[in-house]
User: What shape does this take?
Amino acid sequence: MITIFAGIIMLGILVFVHELGHFAVAKMSGVKVLKFSLGFGPRLLSRQWGETEYLICAIPLGGYVQMLGEGTSEAGEAVELSPEDQARSFANKPVSKRTAIVAAGPLMNLLLPFLVLPIAYMIGVNIPAYLEQVPCIGYVVTDSPGGRSGFESGDCIEAINGDAVATWTDANHALIAHVGSSLEFRVARANHSSVLTMNPEEGGLEGLQSLGLLPRQEAIVGALAPGMPAQAAGMEVGDRIVSIADSPVGSWYDLKHIIQKGGGEPQTFVLDRNGQQLTLSIKPVRDDVNGIDFLVGIAPQPDSIFKRFGIFEAVRAGADRTFELIELTLVFIQKMVSGHVSTKNIGGPITVVQIAGQAAQTDLSSILTVLAFLSIQLGILNLLPIPILDGGHLFFNLYEFVFRRPLSLRSREIAQQIGLLLLISLMILAFYNDIVRIFFGGQ
Amino acid sequence: MAIKQRIFTALIALPVLVLFIVFSGSVLFDLLVMVVVLLGLSEFYRMSLPVERTAERYAAMAVGGLLTLVPVLNVGATLPSLMLVTFFFAIWFLWRFHELHSVIHHLALVLFGFLYLPLLLGHLSLLHGLPHGKEWIFLVLFIVMLGDSAAYFTGVNFGRRKLYPAISPNKSIEGALGGLVGSFGGALAFKYWFFPELSMGDCFLLGFGLGALGQVGDLFESMLKRSFGVKDSGTLIPGHGGILDRLDSLIFAFAPAYYYALWFFQTPR
Assistant: This one.
């Protein structure tokens, strides 16, 4: 119940920010705003303040700003406007102003993270622990730039082009600073230093991982997939895997190799649970995605530490993260359109409320982080060129701007109907996914 | 005629400027900054102080020139230097007050000149001394100049509503917004071509932040000129008005860029 309530409040904040964008620019452009509503449907609370009615309505999954001259009146028929109102009607404003009013909503959603993420970072967030640890390589990806330069797992980077590095973050910074010139890594390997060089063409702007150098990952179970062999055999979160089929396990990266070698036969797992050794026999199953790999259904522990950022660092990290999230969302949409990501990943309002509600039960910085992510998704979704969404509206404006006349009413009506149909099918799909996820526990 | 002269000047001046930033060592660069400050102060005091204050004008220029060098030599000495400067001109004007009702006005103008030019432009030397100093200076030039050009073109084509008619009648709100977008674009372009260490967040904060401050600097200088009743701040650069007319946006952008580079960009560990 608290989850639902908290989720609705967060969704409400996003809707409020969005509608506030439309509302403020409409007022500034001299458009008469009739209604500013949070939620749809029957009104719960309303108050007339000047020429605008402010409402809170029963269905909390959206909101709207109703402007004079936008569509039709409440009763459904077009209304006659007085000359004074004519000038203040949305429809009679020049295309530039209408564009600004429409764009302001999604834009506010895209700008909100620049405000809330720095606050989250100042309160403190959990970041991967390896970033603050000595940059020792846990695994070198085969045929990666790192592999070609002769890196081996266990190497600890001491300096990059003469800049001493103490942590993984330092190493990433130094790497980025020297990208484009040839790189010289001073590396500690088995008590002596050696120097590895790398061509400038190998890249590395995204950090060590982009060179195929991965951090250490201990073989501690962080999560168990339900119904998979490991869980069925009695493995628990927090167990350290000591050996499999008599092969010692040094890090997480050893697991895959040993399990593949077993060829799907039952293997003896030796585990360390709170200092006590125990032995399990587990029979891996074939991965149903590619049918080649054998899996037992475990995931590593995301080892994280709590970090507070100073104000400047927080502002910068917040801005960076905002762009990362925008990119992530765009890539996701692109992959979904091209069919590389299943439409099962589309979540409807119920999922949004659920995610938001779950975050609300943790801590303020998680709430703000989730709020920022949802805000970006809402902003980008609204900018998609689908009629009846803001993006569709902008698309019509673009046509009007290029051809110096609006798209014909008839075409717009047809487009609106197609858009509505698209949106309704999307909503049905989203609700369907939501319901399947909640009641049948599927992913 | 004027536009031809402008292009000609730009053709000569711009490469010289670029060569200077790229190749001059720190001492030479600091001296260049001092020369620019001296030219700026000369214009500022010519506009603001009456003819009978010529002695004060030269004294203030000398003091201002020295003041520009203080932060690069020793940042900690800035505050005591300002104290000395305050005492110096307090005593100076006690000796030479001329007319009681105007003396405080003149004293205020002299002191404001120090805040406007040596203080703000002194950061240009500091910026030059940072790691990637040259890149930072060119980044600011990119952000401000592309912002200016974008503001001009959006203003000419789409400008409807006046931005601030009392001070700058030719500027429009549309132009100002276009300028901000242009500044952001300038930051992005610079990142991709010359300065990959910048993140998208940096480009956003710097593009919009310095772009906006540059526009404020422009308006501020227009206000100064209107207040002093002149059209151009000087005649230093043929076709371009005075040096203050050229530098108005940059004066407000270099100092914040320095603090961004120092506090935001170089994450201390």
